Amino acid sequence: MSEEKKPLEETLFVKYNEFIDFELKEVDRKLLELTGVIGYYQSAYFTLKKKFDLYSIKLDRMWTEKYLYYKNEYNISLNNTEIKQFIEKDLEYLDQKEKLQVVKTLVEQVEMTLKGLDSMGWQLKTVVEWEKFKQGRY
Fold it and tell me: What is the pTM of this model?
C-alpha cells in the first residue's frame, strides 16, 4: 500500500526540523543537501503564493458580488457603511477571509524559512572553511 500524501502545510516544518538536526561532522553533507532543501521550499513558496493569489481574487469577487446584492437586490435600502457591516458578518465571506489569512501566514513562514536557509548556507560554508584552516589546508 502506498502512504497517504501529507498536505504541504504539514510537511514544511517537519522537513526543516529534520534538516537542521545534525552534528558538526556532517557539515559537508548538509551543505550539499542545502540546495535541495532550498529548492523544496522555493517550490512550496510558489505553490502557496499561487494559492494565496487565487484566494485573494476569490475574496475580492465575493466582496463585489455581495456588495452589489446588498446595494441593488436586498429588500432594505442600505448605505455603504451598512453594506460593509453586512458583508463583514457574512459567514461565507468570513470563511474565505480565514482561508486567505491561513495561506498568508504560511507564505510568510516559508519566506522566513528561506531566509534562514540562505543564512545557514553561509554559516555552513564558514564552518567548512574554518575546519580547512584548522587542518592547514586553506
Answer: 0.76
